[in-house]
Amino acid sequence: MKRFIDRFKNSAIKKIITLSQQLNVPKRNNRRAIPSRFLVVSTTGIGDTLWGTPAIRALKETYPDSYLGVLTNQIGSELLQENPNIDEFFIFRRGGRAIFSLPVLLKILRQKKFEVAFIFHASDRVIWPLVFFTGAGEIIGTYDTKGLDFILTRSTDQLLHSHAIENRLALVRQLGANTEDRALELYLTVEERNRMEQFLKDRGINRDVLIVGLHPGAKNVYRRWPSKNFIDLGNILIKKLNCQILITGSKKENSLVDEISAKINGAIPIAGKLSIRESAALIEKMDLFITNDTGPMHIAFALETPTIAMLSPSNPNNCGPYKAKGKYRIIKKPQTCTPCIYKKCYNPVCMEHITVEEVVADAESLLGSKAREGKNGKHV
Questions:
Q1: CB 86 within 8 A of CB 338
Q2: Cα–Cα distance, 75 to 44 (Å, whole number)
């Protein structure tokens, strides 16, 4: 039934766009010899948003005098705040009521006279015709499984064995834009950093003590390391390192975080207490961050926080750290099922193969002398 509805939607969209093309409405903003007005579209999650920052940087490095707008969601706009390569944000909101804001959004986008739009990632079907009706002379994107590729004026094949960062860079290379630096970018302010310093003080956390963050949640069950393992890990690390454990998570993960923190001596639960930028500023202050494959993992990579990431069954070559500058360890086990059923998996058997002992060993290895002597050189 869903496939039928999707085909019907695509057919309707195609008829509307074909008619608009015949009527030459809207008038296209053709690309000049040196393009100067770009729209980047990225309306999905944390990882997808941050993976686009090297390509955004490439556009600005290649066309420094250009105007670059980003069409994103609320989370994306928060993550990309303070990014010097972005001139303006346009916020796409999901949901029934949000549909009434689309005409206003489209009007604003049309006024910007974008020459080229890059669709980095757009899971909402309505984004595709919305971008078409901005009047952008060129729309560049990757082959879309939703069947809306007829909207693109130029497309690239999905690089199945390459990192998502390279897929986005492949799009901007269509206009000759590139960058040597593949690192993710997330810019924090002094005020945000100071606020998290005060956050730690208010909770009696001594900055002379190692701070270790644990992130037990993830969007999908198959990406979650068992709660019991996080509990055992936290208690072992406290005994070995005399560290302070912080348990992070979203508001939806409150019960999971509370359950785990209650069973780790002295652990502090932080689920739902901070904004996404405050969470990032806190992760930056950690001596070590241990996480499942989820959004905060990418934040940690962007901020160069020493990180242990558990990515079974995800492929780190596609979605893990990529030419990251910080210290990290990736723990991945072979896929248990062939073929892997991914989102249909409700028993994280791959993650269960990761042992507490190997995570502890990686933690001690990453912390180095800090693990042996404490944060300020005192013997632990």
A1: no
A2: 8
Backbone angles phi, psi at 116, to 5 degrees: -135, 130
Mention the CATH class of domain 2-175. Answer: alpha beta
3-state secondary structure of 292: strand
- Residues of 144-160 as b/e, b for ≥16 C-beta within 10 angstroms? beeebeebbbebbeeee
Domain ranges of the chain: 2-175, 190-373
| Angle, helix 356-367 to helix 227-241, in steps of 10 degrees | 40
**Structure tokens, 181:** 């630096």
Q: What is the pLDDT of residues 71-125, one digit of tens each?
A: 999 999 999 999 999 999 999 998 777 788 999 999 999 999 999 999 999 888 9
SS3 126: coil
Contact 307, 330 (CB under 8 A): no
The answer to whether the pTM exceeds 0.85 is yes
The architecture of the domain spanning 190-373 is 3-Layer(aba) Sandwich (3.40)
Residue type, 283: I
The residues near 346 (Cβ < 8 Å, ≥ 6 apart) are: 221, 222
The rounded Cα 212 to chain-centroid distance in angstroms is: 21
Lowest pLDDT segment from 92-106, 165-179, 271-285, 356-370: 92-106
